[in-house]
Amino acid sequence: MQALRERILRDGKCLEGGILKVDSFINHQMDPVLMKSMAVEFVRRFASLDINKVITIEASGIAPAIMVGYLLELPVVFVKKKKPSTMENMLSAQVFSFTKNTTYDVCVCRDYLGPGDKVLFIDDFLANGNAARGIVNLVRQSGAELAAMGFLIEKAFQHGGDGLRAQGIVVESLAVIESLDNCRIMLRE
Ligand code: 5GP
Questions:
Q1: Can you give the residue range of the structural domain that contains 136?
Q2: N or C terminus of the chain: which is more exposed, having fewer CB within 10 Å?
Q3: Can you tell me the distance from the alpha carbon of 68 to that of 38, in angstroms, rounded to the nearest whole number?
Q4: Is this model's pTM higher than 0.85 or not?
């Protein structure tokens, strides 16, 4: 998606260790106009899918997911990264965090994800695919169907997308980073 590609090149910052910082328009300060354009693009790409729910993972997935849910007029469920003391009837899965180098549990209440749901997962980044695999695990446990996964930015050099696509999962990314070597942002054409 051209507008996102241009914005990444203009405002994205490359950190050591293959991390792209997009704090000025996605991850901390947010640009709602770009967010809306990205959601419109997801809606276009996923137009042929039969879905009844959008899911995401807190925190950075929530903004793009709610835009998509708003456009599709579908409920949005965000998977939590900490089990709330008040949450019963929950499903959980373990996820390794690339940016924080730790393992954490993700969880969702069975009341909001279950058999009969056909879900579209939306998140900000796809890197090694650990978060996405945790979501695939949760969706399978719930008995719901995963219709597709959409990411704002895929870091192709970390290959998370390869594993998901090899499983037959429909994966769409609005901008694909080929490399961040030497702190230069190389985007796929
Ligand atoms: P994965 O589990 O695919 O390795 O990483 C996905 C999660 O890690 C994303 O939800 C995102 O929060 C975080 N992440 C991975 N790579 C980057 C990056 O380059 N920049 C930022 N800001 N977050 C990242």
A1: 2-187
A2: C
A3: 9
A4: yes
Structure confidence at residue 86 (pLDDT) = 78
**Best of 28, 56, 124 for a ligand 1 pocket test (most atoms within 8 Å of beta carbon):** 124
Q: Which of 26-35, 48-57, 97-106 has the lowest mean pLDDT?
A: 97-106
State how many domains the chain has: 1
Q: Is 179 helix (H, G, I), strand (E, B) or coil?
A: strand
For residue 178, which of 2, 1, 33, 18 has the smallest C-alpha distance? 18
- How high is the mean pLDDT of the chain? 96
The CATH number of the domain holding residue 101 is: 3.40.50.2020
What is residue 32's predicted lDDT score, i.e. its pLDDT?
98
Q: Could you identify the atom of ligand 1 that is nearest to the CA of residue 19?
A: 19
Please determine, for residue 88, whether its predicted confidence score (pLDDT) is greater than 90. Answer: no
The number of the ligand 1 atom at minimal distance from the alpha carbon of 57 is 10
Lining residues, ligand 1, CB within 6 Å:
19-22, 27, 60, 98-99, 123-132, 155, 160
